[in-house]
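Possible regression after last week's pipeline update?

I re-ran a chain I had predicted before the update to compare outputs. Posting the input and the new output here so someone can diff against the archived version. Not blocking, just want to make sure nothing changed silently.
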Amino acid sequence: MKTVIWNREDGTCPFAFKFKNGNFAEYVGKAFKTVQGAENAASKAKEYYGEDWSLNNLAYEKYNDKGEKQTLYIHRNGN
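New output (post-update):
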């Protein structure tokens, strides 16, 4: 699994995990203003989830105590 940082036109820097099959999981739980902020968050996420997910087995969303859904990652097709 590889971590990539993208620079968006709006000035944000999301991180994404690239899987062996070429697809990505882009983190959308928070918009990072700097590349360093995105890199720090990606390092923490890798530490939490582990180094490799061969089946893209991430928690793409979570729910709060009120049952409201928060999207954490979105799937992006790769090449």
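Follow-up from reviewer: compared with the archived run. Residues 46 and 52 are 9 Å apart (CA to CA). Marking as no regression found.
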